[in-house]
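Worked example

This section walks through a single chain of length 54. The input is the sequence exactly as stored; nothing has been trimmed or padded.
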Amino acid sequence: MSSARAHERAAALLERMAAAHPEEAELHLQAATRQRFWAERDREIAERYSPDGR
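Given that input, the structure is written out below as tokens.
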């Protein structure tokens, strides 16, 4: 689950970068969306294969 948390932190950072740099906002938001997708995948994999779901 630590990798999912890392992806979530990266997404939050990218969203802050989008707000701070409007000229690059779309690219930052696209990257944030990918990070959140990877976070969800990591959570699903952890639930499926980890004995305690972490």
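What to look for: The CA atoms of residues 45 and 53 lie 9 Å apart.
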